[in-house]
Write a structure and sequence with these properties.
The complex is a heterodimer of chains A (403) and B (79). Chain A has 403 residues and is mostly beta strands. Chain A has helices at residues 2-20, 28-33; strands spanning 36-51, 65-79, 85-99, 116-130, 135-146, 149-161, 167-181, 205-220, 225-231, 234-238, 246-248, 254-256, 262-276, 280-291, 296-303, 306-309, 312-324, 351-362, 374-386, 390-401. Chain B has two helices and no strands. Chain B is flat, with a radius of gyration of 19 Å. Classes of the chains: A mainly beta (403), B mainly alpha (79).
């Protein structure tokens, strides 16, 4: 934890020193072709939750969990000889979490292998924008590594903006080729099967592949209102169950969670933002979601940034969410042993949730705290209440740097 | 019961379609110099960077995901 905090401070200081060494270039034609620093962002969040329906222990037990998440991204741009704008973004993220329920994979040990873990996820994105034609092409490569999970991701994106720049069509193809260690609860491990830990012997692994197509259409409606429609069908195959999650049956027997190895999801979202008067912005979002596991959900999100001054705003927000659980869910000890698929993971049960909080944004023209390169600072706090006895708090900080 | 459900689905889709058509019909051509309010940092038509961890935890703690700038599946040991 200390190492991660020090790394974030280190990233901030090195970024600041790099920015302060920038010297103006007077040769404009040369400057256009040269790689130019566009912006950098640091996002840090602390998340803490508690509840009493842990899936690792079959739908009962502590869901206490903390997560410290940090990411930094740097964006550089340059123009080529055809006057096309190339953007390069490099992002590195580090999450460190502790989970009380993961510690119950083997309750006899003082602490199991995955009671705490660090996830590292770098990604690189390139886009080429032809401002004359209004087209943008891009590609992204990403990687993620944690104790029991490894992921390789790739994406291609395209967008076309109309001549008057009032409508935009965008599409993105994305694939994740993941590998997941198959860890069983201690009492369900076959003879000789490892723990997955460094000293507990090896375990098998299985693939989990995800493919999605995102299509969106954005439209400027008038000088104050703009909206976008998004659809993102996703197909997943491979190990979709978490094998260290226990399920208890009506006859008292126990098995590892088992779910189908395919899932097709269809989320459909609409976002509309309206600038009311000179001080209020109404940000609204609605999503309908359905999948072939029988889960259906509605999300409504409303945020109203209030500009106290042109450079300082307060943003109260509220989000309502409701879902109909998947057909394979039943609480602790309620599954029939002749079922093919079963889970007691309350994340997939029927529930409603409310999420609300407040954000602050400061973006003075001379930089935050007089630091010219520190373009803006945002701080946001949210409280989450789920009808299945789960509560959480999250605080996030975003620092944006510009030359 | 099924007939009532189908009727309400049809009504919902018709309503959604009518709203979409009326919004598109009311569109006016907005010039670049008229876009100072639309170009405000808080008017962006996507989730903002500060919402990144929120979107992640929502996709972990809820069964649905996608179409919001967050994850839609894969890339981590989550739902």
């Amino acid at each position: 934890m200390k190492k991660i905090c020090l790394s974030v401070v280190g990233m901030y200081l090195s970024l600041l020193s790099a920015l302060s060494q920038t010297t103006p270039n007077t040769d404009s034609s040369y400057k256009r072709r040269k790689l130019k620093f566009e912006e950098a962002n640091i996002v840090s969040s602390y998340y803490k939750q508690d509840g009493n329906h842990a899936a690792v222990t079959g739908g009962i037990g502590s869901q206490a969990l903390t997560d410290l998440s940090n990411s930094i991204d740097v964006k550089l741009t340059r123009y080529d000889k055809f006057n096309r704008k190339h953007s390069y973004s490099l992002e590195v993220g580090i999450d460190h979490y502790t989970s009380a329920s993961s510690d119950k994979i083997d309750p006899k040990t003082l602490s199991s292998a995955s009671h705490a873990d660090t996830r590292i996820y770098p990604s690189f994105n390139w886009t080429m924008e032809n401002e004359k034609k209004g087209t943008t092409f891009g590609a992204t490569a990403s990687y993620s590594q944690e104790f029991d999970y490894q992921s390789f991701g790739a994406a291609l994106n395209f967008s076309k903006i109309t001549e008057n720049k009032n409508s935009e069509f965008a599409a993105k193809l994305q694939a994740y080729l993941d590998k997941w260690k198959v860890i069983y609860p201690i009492e369900l491990r076959p003879q000789g099967y490892g723990t997955g830990g460094e000293d507990g012997g090896s375990v098998g692994s299985q693939p989990r592949n995800s493919f999605s197509v995102l299509v969106s259409y954005s439209q400027v409606i008038n000088t104050r209102l703009q909206a976008t429609l998004i659809i993102e069908p996703t197909y997943q195959q491979g190990l979709l169950a978490t094998k260290y999650q226990r399920v208890y049956f009506t006859d008292g027997s126990e098995q590892a969670e088992t779910l189908p190895d395919k899932r097709f999801k269809i989320p459909l979202g609409i976002r509309a933002n309206y600038f009311l008067g000179d001080r209020f912005i109404i940000r609204s979002y609605y999503r309908f979601y359905t999948d072939d596991w029988g889960l259906r959900a509605h999300t409504i999100d409303l945020e109203v940034p209030v500009k106290i001054t042109p450079f300082f705003s307060l943003s109260p927000f509220y989000r309502f969410y409701t879902q109909k659980g998947i057909k394979y869910f039943a609480p602790y000890g309620m599954h029939q042993s002749n079922n093919t698929y079963f889970t007691s993971d309350y994340d997939l049960s029927k529930f409603t949730s409310n999420y609300f909080g407040m954000g602050i944004r400061i973006a003075p023209p001379k930089g935050v705290l007089g630091i010219q390169q520190l373009n803006s600072l945002e701080l946001r706090f949210g409280h989450y209440i789920r009808s299945t006895d789960l509560n959480s708090n999250i605080v996030s900080l975003h620092l944006k740097f510009k030359p | 019961m099924k007939l009532i459900q189908n009727k309400s689905k049809l009504l919902f889709c018709t309503l959604l379609f009518s709203v979409a058509v009326s919004i598109l019909n009311s569109c006016t051509s907005v010039k670049e110099y008229q876009k100072n309010k639309l170009n405000d940092a808080e008017m962006t038509l996507s989730a903002r960077k500060i919402e990144k961890t929120e979107l992640n935890f929502q996709s972990y703690r809820e069964g649905s995901s996608g179409a919001n700038g967050g994850k839609t599946g894969g890339g981590c040991g989550c739902n």
